[in-house]
Amino acid sequence: MQTEARIKAINCQHFINGQFVDSKNQKTFENINPATEEVLGTVAEGGKEEVGYAVAAARRALKGPWKNTTLQERSKILRRIGDLILERQEELAHLESLDTGKPFSLANSIDIPRAAYNFHFYADYITSVGTEAYQQDQQALHYAYRRPVGVVGIIKPWNLPLLLLTWKLAPCLGMGNTAVIKPAEWTPMTATVLMEICKEAGVPDGVVNLVHGFGPNSAGGAISEHPDIDAISFIGEPGTGSAIMKSSADSLKKLSYELGGKNPNIIFADADLDEVIETTIKSSFVNQGEVCLCGSRIYVERPIYSEFVSRFAERVKALKVGHPLDDDTNVGALVSKEHYDRVMGYVEIAKNDGGTIVTGGKRPEGLEKGYYLEPTIITDLSRNSRCVREEIFGPVVTVTPFDMEEEVVMQANDTHYGLSATIWTSNLKRAHRVSHQIEAGIIWVNTWFLRDLRTPFGGMKNSGIGRTGGMHSIDFYSELSNITIKL
Ligand code: NAD
Ligand code: 6OD
């Protein structure tokens, strides 16, 4: 039974200096519902001019009331933002589902509660942050003084819109910075509501600013180039990261990057296969496979390869692809036509490369409108196929057998990416040994996407620069001055 949207989509304006405003030239673009291909509403299209206003407001706020807030006051505001997100959970989950095509049930159980928790976590964490101090015999006392980095540009992707925005914004505000945010053009709604929430929670005008728009030659490009932005926190594709690095080079901005992944899911024959299959369904297809951490390259030790493929395929065929607002939907719609065509292109590449489509690979029957794709398992591809090498970012996984531990480590590392990996084994020594050899920033053993926000999070190689989480985010969003007092 299809649930009717109980929450109406919103038209999205910029939020600059505490006010919702249109673009100076009144330009807007359409926001499309990926589940129905209908227009949800309009979005103000910002550019250099709007980013200029937003940066000026953020700069004033940095030196104004925000500068004088105490840690306790900022902690209270972060807590209140988290509380208000939870008060508006159902509305936010609806808007997130309409924008992205993800199941409402997923947005309501994961995205929005985690968005609130990002604020609650940092509300507590910032109150325990200290600095270093060293006594140098009787000569001197050295201590580090922490201050905000300044105005931060936050540029976001579309897959987990509110979860990822709050993951950056909470420590950014907590450390006393101000922000100019650009959400992904395909998913503008929850970021817009978050601005209302920030205002209600007591964030002073100008501290958070939001400019909608596109990438290069638009709001994203304007943020990267703006000389008065001190740092950029970016989540998105490596190519975009590289473009931002080039355009921010003249002003030497501090950069934090969380980029793509082509993550190996390595299954040894001694693993608990029931648990493996249960979790691998999620690590392959949750959020339509549009999670940077998805284990899209599955490697299975040969003795259990056939059993894994047949049991996994059986379970995957039972997943319900459907309208995101249906209660029983497991897999919703991909985010846009452009992305859908791109993912479908990879299915064609797999066929041309001699791959076997074990299940999926096509639009589900009965869903003629919307960007739906059956969860897809592909076998028999060589490691040179673009399907095995490139991030697909959709409900498509490849499965490959292996014989030796050294061989699978080599294959797992045979990529420009290095975000995450999952290793399934009941052999503790092997778990440590393989984990130490895999070139990835996040390694899960016998689990996937189990998060503790104090831990370092991020990727190596083309998957990112720096780490976030706990103290790592605090370090990015602050500058240290070492002060030496001669005794
Ligand atoms: P994208 O790089 O295309 O876009 C991200 C953002 O950058 C958007 O807001 C876009 O408008 C903006 N942008 C594009 N070009 C720009 C430019 N030249 N200058 C400034 N801004 C620009 O990424 P996407 O398609 O929105 O997201 C998917 C990608 O994000 C995948 O690669 C995925 O793996 C990655 N991702 C990584 C993580 C992580 O934690 N590592 C999390 C989520 C998504
Ligand atoms: O859990 C997180 O903190 C995080 N940044 C998740 C990213 C998921 C990528 O799609």
TrEMBL record:
Residues 20-481 form the Aldehyde dehydrogenase domain. Gene3D superfamilies: Aldehyde Dehydrogenase, Chain A, domain 1 (3.40.605.10), Aldehyde Dehydrogenase, Chain A, domain 2 (3.40.309.10). GO terms for molecular function: 5-carboxymethyl-2-hydroxymuconic-semialdehyde dehydrogenase activity. The keyword NAD applies. Its EC number is 1.2.1.60. SUPFAM superfamilies: ALDH-like (SSF53720). This is 5-carboxymethyl-2-hydroxymuconate semialdehyde dehydrogenase. It comes from Cytobacillus firmus. The lineage of its organism: Bacteria, Bacillati, Bacillota, Bacilli, Bacillales.
